[in-house]
Fold this protein.
Amino acid sequence: MAMKDSVAGKAETQQIYPPRAAVISWIFFDWAAQPYFTLITTFVFAPYFATHVAPDAASGQSLWGFATAAAGLTIALMSPVLGAIADASGRRKPWIAAFGALLVLGSGLMWFGKPGDTKVIAPLLLAYGIATVGVEFATVFNNAMMPTLVPPEQIGRLSGTGWATGYVGGILSLILVLGFLAADPATGRTLFGFAPLFGLDPVTHQGDRITGPLTGIWFVIFVLPMFALTPDYPARQKLRDALRSGLTGLRQTLGELPKQQSMAAFLLANMIYTDGLVSLFAFGGIYAAGTFNWQTIQIGSFGILLAIAGTLGAWLGGKLDDSLGPKRVIAGSMLILLLSIVAILLVDKDSILFIKVAPPAPGGALFASAAERAYLVLGCLIGAAGGPLQAASRTLLIRLAPKDRIAQYFGLFALTGKVTSFVGPFLIGIITAVTASQKAGMAVLVAFFVAGLALLGRVRE
C-alpha cells in the first residue's frame, strides 16, 4: 500500500506493494465485469432486443441508443463527485460493492424481456440503464486502486493484462451461452449441436434472455477474490466529512485544470474518442444483425473472434505501453479503428469496397459469404485496437494525475468518457431514425476518431 507523510509542505512517499496474489485478484475484477459488455451491450442481448423485442431493427437500434445516452449522462454527472468523495474517505471497496449490486439487480431483470412484448420495452431499458450505471461506477473505483498495486514502470503491463484477462472472461462467457444455452429457434440446437441446458426455450429466446442473470451471477463469483485478497486504501474520514472535503477538493481541481494543459487536452480527447468507441461496441452487433440478418449464434461467434483479437491486442498493448508510452499506443489504436470503420461502411451483404459479391445464402455455412468474412476481418481489427486504446488511456491518466487525488481524476476520466457519451448513441439513434439506414447512423463515428487523434497531439507525457 502507499503510505504518505507530509513534512513542511513536502510529501515523501514510500511505496510498499502488496503480494502477487493481491494483484491477480484485482485483475479478476475485469474478468468479473467483462461479460456485461460482451453478453449484454454488444453480442447477445442488445441485438436480441433490437431484432426481437423492438418492433424492427432500426427502431430497436434507436431506442437502445437513447437508453445508452441516458445512462451515460447519469454516469458523467456523478463520477467526479463520487471520485472526490472516495479520495476523501479513502476506501474503494464499499463503493465497488454498492455499484456492483446495481449491476446484479439490473442485469437480472433482463430475463423478463420477452420477444414481441412491447410492454416490457420501457422497463427493460430502465434495467439496462441501472446495470450500466452500476458496472461503470464500480469500474471507476476499481481503476483507482491501480497505483498502489505495482511500481509506475509496470502500470502499463498491469492495465493491459487486466483488459486481456477481461476479454478472456468475455470469451468464456460467450462460449458458455452459445455452446450450451442459446439455441437457434429453427433447429432448437446450440452452436455445439446440443439442446439448451435447463430446458431453455429457443422459441421465446430464453437462451438470449438468460445472459442477464448469468452476468450478475458471474460478477458476484469472480469479484470475490478482489474483496478478499486485494488491500484497500485505509479509511480517512466519515462519509459526511468526506462529502464536504471531497466537493471542496473537486472545485479546487476543476479550477486548476485549465492550467494543466496536457491533462485538459487528454481529458477532452478521451471524451471524444471514448464516445466513438463505446458507440462502436454498442452498435456493432446490432449493425451486423441488420446488415447480414445474423442471429444470436452468428453474432456470438463473431463476438468470440473479436474477443480473442482483443485479448491479444490488450496484452501486446500493455507491453508496448511500458516501452513506447501510452500516448503512442492510443494514437496507433485510434488510427486502426478509424480505417476499419471507413472500410466497414463500404461493406454490404452483396458488395465489398463497391465490388459486387455473392450475398449470403439462406441457411448457408457460418460466415460463408465474402462480405461476411470481410466484416469479420475488420471486426477483429476493431477488437484488437479497442483493448489497447482503453488500457493505455487509464495508464496515461495515472501518469498525469496527482497520486493523492487519483480517484477524483478517475472520476473526471469517467466524466469525460461519459459526459458526451450520449452524443454518439443519440446521433446514431437520430440519424438512423430519420434515414431508416443503419449505415448512415454508423457513419457518424468517423468524426469522433478524427477529432480524438487531433486533440491527442496536444498531450505531453
